[in-house]
Records
---
Amino acid sequence: MLEVRGLVKHFGGVRAVDGIDFAIRPGEVFGLIGPNGSGKSTTVNLVCGLYAPTQGQILFQGQDIARVATHKRLSLGLARTFQNIRLFTNLTVWENLWMAENAPAHRAEAGFLKRWVGGRGNARERISQALEFSGLAHRADDLAGSLAFGEQRRLELARALAARPRLLLLDEPAAGMNAEEIAQLDERIRMLQQQGYTILLIEHHMELVMAVTDRICVLNFGRKIAEGTPAQVQADPAVRDAYLGTGA
Ligand SMILES: Nc1ncnc2c1ncn2[C@@H]1O[C@H](COP(=O)(O)OP(=O)(O)OP(=O)(O)O)[C@@H](O)[C@H]1O
């Protein structure tokens, strides 16, 4: 589904990502973890197109997208949520989803009026489903800015889903959430996987990562130090060393 080969990103003298490789299989939940500053966000930004790589390939369904514009990546089926919530706070919940449904990726498919009345494959129906899935149906007409923090995070997820991605990038979705919200997030990630989504999860909350991922890639100082199942990476001395300084 997504393969990263020899990916490098330097910011001046900082080697934020320093030659990493990994491959995500269709239908899996793939975790990307590592201590602060290890290169996770930079990797996600490279994959979704916010940054151009210094070197390396990003293959999405076999096509090298390393130089493809962000909105085109969205149309190919790559959507993300942000670590820092980025919603249109002056629009309603429903309108935020409608904007996503009508992302540049889908604009060419039908005229405005046709889309507005829900002509293109029932956009309204899909928005309803995204609202239902994220537990926000009762807040559809409220301004996004008036939602509680946890609800805004759910709206971020719903918005990414409304773009109908094949690969969903979740950038620290549990940040700032309480235990109950994290349990709900855990459940939602599993449901999305059952529905056929492929997910790249960047997360600091280890319990969540270990519970929902199939495989994990561990970064440290911009390099991959381990890859494997949750059990394998947890038992890896290099990983324990990177996190706790208590390895081999
Ligand atoms: N735009 C930038 N300009 C310069 N340096 C940057 C930039 N973005 C990231 N870096 C540096 O690159 C390195 C990797 O940062 P990155 O944000 O990718 O790490 P991270 O693993 O996502 O960290 P965190 O867990 O704290 O979010 C860090 O040393 C960081 O300071």
---
Amino acid sequence: MNRHVWNQAAAPEGAHGTTPGSGVDVRIAPSILSADFARLGEEVRAIEAAGAALVHFDVMDNHYVPNLTIGPLVCEAIRPHVSIPIDVHLMVEPVDALIPMFAKAGADIITFHPEASRHVDRTLALIREHGCKAGLVLNPATPTHWLDHTLDKLDMVLLMSVNPGFGGQRFIPGTLAKLRDVRERIDVHRATGGQPVWLEVDGGVKTDNIAAIAHAGADTFVAGSAVFGAPDAPEAGGGYHGVMQRLRDQAAAGMRHDRPQIPEDDFKPTYDKTTGDASCHSTSARP
Ligand SMILES: O=C(CO)[C@H](O)[C@H](O)COP(=O)(O)O
């Protein structure tokens, strides 16, 4: 299957989520839910130029969540505008029929809510069969035991720190304890030979709370209103560049450095804009 070429060689130091000299990855994933939809190509190019690691793409169906957003056609339309991976968060029920459509449209990562799929294991396999990274999303009240029999099949765990459906909500503080729980599970999994699993958090992430969120264990941070609400004028704080830099710096400052040392993961994604070439690349062992 024709998929995106992931190659981070061209990324400047400090861009696309790497924090130079820190030894830790901080990945900021701006949610285009808060972007100007009339200028979406320009908006995603701007966040990539500002150092975004991922484009976070929120899909809402007015059924699983009480809002209606964007689908595969929009994913396909923005794909040629950026090299960074598109991180598709499916807030839909049922899930499976959309997976081949998003894979074809250029998604690199597809996450879904386990309670929205009748067969979670089958849905995870379907995502991977279509050449994408797979993740589970846990709502604020969804227990972490969903990870008990799935962690070895995941590339990402996404913890919702708001109830899904709308941007601009307040961060739910109980997410910090949940992050610590999932961080520990992932660290044990890695230390016992498991594959890399990113820990993403989504909802109400701002410059004034991202350090605490990083300290609790997140490595990948969705930020919608914080990024796209940033004033454009450089004199007013540097626009997207300024806010992304502050988010990265604060997150890196909050990261714990006493965690078990594990090898760097190999999740180095970049779409080749020049050729439009598309094939997933990962050397991770897949179960
Ligand atoms: O999935 C989402 C809502 O369901 C959004 O990604 C999330 O809320 C990000 O927006 P903000 O940073 O403004 O809270």
